[in-house]
Amino acid sequence: MRNLKLTLAYDGTDFSGWQIQPERSTIQGSLASAIGRITGEKVLPQGSGRTDAGVHALEQVATVATESVIPAANLAIALNDILPAAIRVLDVREVAPGFHARKSSRAKSYRYRMYRNTVCPPFLARYVWHYPYPLNEDAMCTAAPLVEGEHDFSSFAAVDPERGLDGDQHSNVRRVFSSTWRRDGHEFIYEVRGNGFLHHMVRNLVGTFLLVGKGTLEPEDVIKILRAKNRSVAGATAPGSGLCLVSVEYNESEM
Q: Which residue of 9, 41, 74, 242 is 20 to 30 Å from 64, comparing CA positions?
């Protein structure tokens, strides 16, 4: 039995997220089907985390156990011949038996893109949240670092059974290593890096920072929201289109 690490990129617009669901098109389901067609095995690739419907990835990682002897490089080519054009396998490599895409991850980075100009170019519309309305961007920049550190992020977790994007069903405590907003032309971009993220956590953070930008909240109110551990006191969930999983980090020694 071989343990394979697959690195993927995808446009999540037309998919119902990562996790396989009956009668719905998902990234995990598409990948499992493609592997099955090639190897004849029934497998369920395990991802580093569950991206939501409409969310994209520049670098998602999955692991899969297989008895196939197909060389890793050849498997990558075969998968890209079968998978929808919106999903690409960037790399396949054999890793240690104990390596797991989710359990072995040390950090993940997400990016949220907000397009601020009056008219959003059609070629960007699938990958940004078009928000041309007035915002105090400086206040949002001040608020973002206030969520850094280890906290119970219950106020920013989706109110549903899927507690953790990284699969942890027991705790809403996560450590955020960095949290920043920056301008890049017409885009206002939120970047966050942490050891794990709850379901909708990044999108709920963006929705809350938006309230700071609109003047509904002061930057320091973000700390009060964190301490409340109550989803109802935070902002609305930002659209999935603007969110992208940028990278997943591992210790090379564990691979």
A: 242
Query: DSSP letter string over 146-174?
Result: GG-EEEE-GGGS-SSS--BTTS--S--EE
H helix or E strand, kind and range, residue 54: none
194: closest CA among 231, 225, 160, 156?
A: 156
The active-site residue out of 14, 52, 160, 166 is 52
Evaluate whether residue 178 is within a structural domain: yes
Q: How high is the mean pLDDT in each 10-residue block of the chain (255 residues)?
A: 97 96 96 97 96 96 97 98 98 97 97 98 97 98 98 92 52 96 98 96 98 98 97 97 98 82
Question: Does the residue 254 lie in any domain?
Answer: no
Instruction: For residues 87 and 31, give the distance between their C-alpha atoms in angstroms, rounded to a whole number.
Output: 9
CATH number of the domain within which 71 lies: 3.30.70.580
Q: How many domains does the chain have?
A: 2
* Structural domain span for residue 171: 107-249
184 noted as active-site residue = no
